[in-house]
Amino acid sequence: MTKLDTNLDACQMSSEILLRLRKIMRESLRTIHGNEWEATGIPTEIREYLTQRQAREASINWNLSDAVDILDFAGFVDLYEVMAANPQLLQRFLPLAPDPSVLRIRFLELDTILSRIAYARPISESELGFLVTFEDRLKKSASAPLPAIEEVPAAPPPRPGRTAAAPTPPPKVVPPSPSPAAPAPRGGSPDPQPKAAPQKPASPSKPEPEPAAVPVAAEPVGPQELESALKRNDNRVILTALYQEVTALADGLWNGSVASLQARTWEQVRESQWYHDLFGKLGLKPISDFFGLFDAAKGRMGAGSSRNDLQEFLKDHSFVQVLLGLKDLFRTHMKP
Question: Which of 85, 170, 240, 264 is 20–30 Å from 40 (CA)?
Answer without folding.
Answer: 170
